[in-house]
Amino acid sequence: MDVKAVTGDQLVEKLDSLGMKNSRPGSEGSYDYVDEQGDSMSTPVESSLSVQTTEQWERQLMKDPKNRLALSTLAKHGSNALIQRSAQIKDTQNYNVKIAFEGGPITNQRSSGRCWLFAATNVFRVAIMKKYNLKEFELSQSYLFYYDKLEKSNWFLEQILDTLDEPLDGRLIQTLLADPVGDGGQWDMVANLVEKYGIIPQQHYPDTWNAQNSSDMRRLITSKLREDALELRRLAKEAKDARASLGSVKDKMMKEIHLILTVTLGPPPSPTSEFTWEFYDKEDKFGSLTTTPTDFAAELSSKASVASDSGCDVHRVFSLVNDPRNDYGKLLSVSRLGNVVGMRGVRYVNVNMKTMKEACISMLQANFPIFFGSDVGKYSNTQSGIMDVDLFDFELGFNVRLGMNKAQRLMAGESAMTHAMVLTAVHLDKDGQPVRWRVQNSWGETAGTKGWFVMSDKWMDEFVYQAVVDPKFVSEEIQDVLKQEPKMWGFPFFPGLTYLKTDINRRLEPWDPMGALA
User: Fold this and answer.
1) Which residues form a coiled coil (predicted)?
2) Which residues contact 244 (CB under 8 A, 6 or more apart)?
3) Please, which residues bridge with residue 467 across strands?
4) What phi and psi values does residue 355 have, to the nearest 5 degrees?
5) Angle formed at CA 115 by CA 112 and CA 118, multiple of 5 degrees
6) CB 149, CB 182: distance < 8 Å
7) HEC letters along 392-453
8) I need a labelling partner for 481 at 20 to 30 A (CA). Which of 46, 223, 415, 450 fits?
């Protein structure tokens, strides 16, 4: 079959005439290339790519003035040249539902992957700021960061001891070795840290350079843990009972990790030792509090804090997720994902986006901030702080249509939770449906509108995967899913490892995209 070259515009016209519409993120459509007779192109698959073919493609491409303009523009301005003015105009920082107190200042995680700790502490601080009438306040993200690295190292070594019979080159061990102590985390993991170690004002454990620029420290600890993993596996082959005989070896390994963390981040306050926090409130009145990190954390669920937060106990909140690959109304867990041995693993209640958004709107109407996880790098612009599936017109620049839906992006490894932020407002239309959402980020005031981002509702549908909500803002049916206790199996010496083994629930593999750490 003879196939004539067609320009991008002619191709679009032909596709439209055949009812093949543009497939932006979220649409279910797809398209085929067609010849001028309207038949689908079908030619034998060539195993190699010839120079002659690519040269022919280039000649055809450069004949089109639209492509020459795209080359000139994109070479100088990159994808920013494809930003649509219409999206910039409609995505404003105006909302008709907004929590009364958002908390401040805008935080900055700098060159680290601590977004989940910043998002969580930005949620926690609201209750504290209300109670003590504060204008600005930050909890120490570095304090939780220190203990998370320490606990993740211990978790990793326990995983290695628990998988001694697995092949070293198998997918499971290679997944464990890939990123044993990454900066990221999940809500259940920060809940573990707060319960065990408490929280502390930032002034009592401020960032070091290594907290703000964590890559060197992370690489060093990762190299050491990988070396330790190989050593544990080697020694286990020589031991009759690996767990009974390798305790001192593991302790030595953990002591070395502790040394690295302490030298790079500084010695942290003891969770049970008293400190005195001094502050000025909004009226410039001096105040002080003597407490311990664990007692300070306990205040988040005290009667006074709960009352000031209109009855919300931050320790009761849980994760709703939207994973269209799996059945809704089910409890999901990710195998071997966690940080503190002996405490809760990572669990999600899988719901549709309508349920998630209704819970979020109810939370905001009741004046509660919301921790959420998303794929922030998709269809977003850091400078403007806009997240909108209509922000970039890639078809205009490349004659390329991206048509995968949310489930397909997860299956193909195209998308996952990469960043955690906080919702503080939503704009509803006359029918009460969400139009756009206000987002508190942790990239400093130079990003977005003085640190604030705006998320279109369509972007939320496609790239938001998680929202942490209070049970009272969801239906009894969803609450019943949350009450389901996963069945435990495996080794009694590793109680922190939670597996789901029921027909009504789903245990995801360690490499599943829903196991990505924000």
Assistant:
1) 222-252
2) none
3) 320, 372
4) -65, -45
5) 110
6) no
7) ECHHHHHCCCCCCCHHHHHHCCCCCCCEEEEEEEEEECCCCCEEEEEEECCECCCCCECCEE
8) 415
Nearest in space to 466 (alpha carbons), one of 309, 353, 334: 353
3 state DSSP class of 277: strand
Asked whether the beta carbons of 419 and 376 are under 8 A apart, the reply is: yes
Q: Following CA atoms 52, 55, 60, 66 in sequence, which dihedral angle do they give, to the nearest 10 degrees?
A: 160
Active-site residue list: 115, 419, 441
Record the tokens describing residue 327, joined without a space.
């059945």
Tens digit of pLDDT at every position of the chain (518 positions): 443 444 445 444 543 444 444 445 655 444 444 444 555 556 788 889 999 999 999 999 999 999 999 999 999 999 999 999 999 999 999 999 999 999 999 999 999 999 999 999 999 999 999 999 999 999 999 999 999 999 999 999 999 999 999 999 999 999 999 999 999 999 999 999 999 999 999 999 999 999 999 999 999 999 999 999 999 999 999 888 878 889 999 999 999 999 999 999 999 999 999 999 999 999 999 999 999 999 999 988 776 666 655 445 767 899 999 999 999 999 999 999 999 999 988 999 999 999 999 999 999 999 999 999 999 999 999 999 999 999 999 999 999 999 999 999 999 999 999 999 999 999 999 999 999 999 999 999 999 999 999 999 999 999 999 999 999 999 999 999 987 754 333 333 333 334 334 434 778 999 999 999 98
CA distance readout (Å), 357 to 328, 461, 473: 15, 9, 11
Going by DSSP bridges, is the β-strand pair 97-98/464-469 parallel, antiparallel, or unpaired? unpaired
Strands (E) in 225-292, as ranges, are 275-280, 286-291
Only one residue has tokens 């544990």, namely 232
Element (H, E) at 332: strand 330-334
Residue with tokens 């840290």: 193
Tally: H helices and E strands in the chain? 19, 14
Task: Please tell me what DSSP assigns to residue 380.
Answer: E
Considering only CA atoms, which of 449, 447, 438, 440 is closest in space to residue 421? 440
Which token pair is 437? 């959402």
Angle between helices 187-197 and 115-132 (to 10 degrees): 50
Q: Which two tokens stand for residue 44?
A: 């034998």
Q: CA 320, 116, 104 angle in degrees (round to 5)? A: 105
Phi, then psi, of 228 in degrees rounded to 5: -65, -35
Instruction: Report residue 161 as tokens.
Output: 């001891």
